């Protein structure tokens, strides 16, 4: 974002620009004008298909250990035990394309990813990682190269997306109020919900409320009834009473991949969060795969009666996500915060912090701004500046009472470049 | 639910007590779409948290999350429900009394008794929180709150400490 950078580049920005210049010189990356369809390829590194894409491989500090890539098991639905956050284990690193020798070390060296040995004060329950049946390798459509400079943030929301763009990935948050069997039993509601999800590449959902485990898989099957290939992960039931909620991420597996081992409920020091967030790490499928935009999503639904305390706890969680996982600088906190930007408390004090949604309402009644996507704009330069609120009434031609049958929240979304920019070392 | 249907909250509150599950479920679902307009049904919704049917309970909780402050005429019923044997009912009665703030000053003895009791931890935590929301009018509960401030549960201790600060003004 132009507005986020001073006219005199900082040493970090200058280093990044030198790195890009060197990469251009050696053919590691290419550039194109905005709108050009130009695939970026590295000789000898182009997979023939998605099946040839290198898996996410754990990297450990020297001395090097053998790296073992576990081949994916052909499962229908399986449960993968996931360790709590910040356990003593290597975390994932997505290697950037290597610079060809004798390229000078212009850019700061990438850190070796080693998680600090920080134990959570409260061990959260492990989420169930339900992986839908593997899909056949889809054709990889190289996305358009983004403009060289980040776009300034949009002053007004963009119109709702009617289809997925080729030059961006769309990340959304949607509180589907009391999403359970009763809602699934209404075909007209399911129809709208599936059409909502199909507009986006990843949807962070809040308020799955059901004792049955079949709600999310049944819903994803409905989404895929038109041939789509969405998959999902779902977190554990959370809440202080018998009334509990689950988070779920639903994503288009033809455009996005997930690291299943990254899925976990965040620690909840001091028990300040009624429903501690679910996190997962994603990467856009690109050619080559290493160039795809990778990012954490942190899904949250705050308790409306303790918003100030929870918002401040989320500020701590956001900062810890960046420091505990040094190889990933893109952390997107999204969900129903029950608060608008004026109530963001200590979140607003995080250097570089920004949010997509402002100056409009996000609930179905068009009276409150509760939902948002929050990220560090100086790190997540993949943000295109495009965002919006998908107004259920307007988009689907529904009267208010029918729109409220879908949810009391509208989905909110933001668009990001499919290409990873230079990671900021040591964040 | 259109805004024009908001005055139905009292009628829907009656339907929440129906012997017919379908009627109760439909009433709870309609109230969950009404946001603040469901406030007249506040006490009935809290009672519905003890319904035998999961859908009724979940829709009642959804309505309670969004209805904001309870009306003044609901306070006495909510005070009675603080001691309810179902923790979810007691939790929401306590929560709504906290939202009422100093208007719920009459609830201080019930909330203090709940805080000092071996009630469900989530209810005791909310009782401490509610006393803090009532503020200076909860001064008679200071001793109970002080004991809770040294409770072994860190969340209860924190909420009680915050309540003490609010009571002290």
Task: Record keyword descriptors for this entry.
heterodimer, A: 427 residues, alpha+beta, Deoxyribonuclease I, Chain A, 7-stranded mixed β-sheet, 6-stranded mixed β-sheet, 7 helices, globular, B: 169 residues, mainly alpha, Leucine-rich Repeat Variant, disordered N terminus
Distance linking N and C termini of chain A: 19 Å
Protein structure class of chain B: mainly alpha
* Low-pLDDT segments of chain A: 1-7, 20-124, 129-153
CATH level 4 superfamily of the domain at 157-416 in chain A: Endonuclease/exonuclease/phosphatase
State the share of residues found in helices of chain B, binned by percent.
55-70%
CATH-derived topology of the largest domain in chain B: Leucine-rich Repeat Variant
CATH-scheme architecture of the domain at 157-416 in chain A: 4-Layer Sandwich
Strand content of chain B: under 5%
Strand content of chain A: 15-25%
Largest sheet of chain A: 7 strands, mixed
Largest sheet of chain B: none
CATH class of the largest domain in chain B: Mainly Alpha
User: Number of domains in the coordinates of chain B?
Assistant: 2
Number of strands of chain B: 0
**What's the SSE pattern of chain A?**
HEEEHHEHEEEEEEHEEEEHHE
| Parts with pLDDT < 50 across at least 5 consecutive residues of chain B | 1-6
- The helix tally of chain B amounts to 10
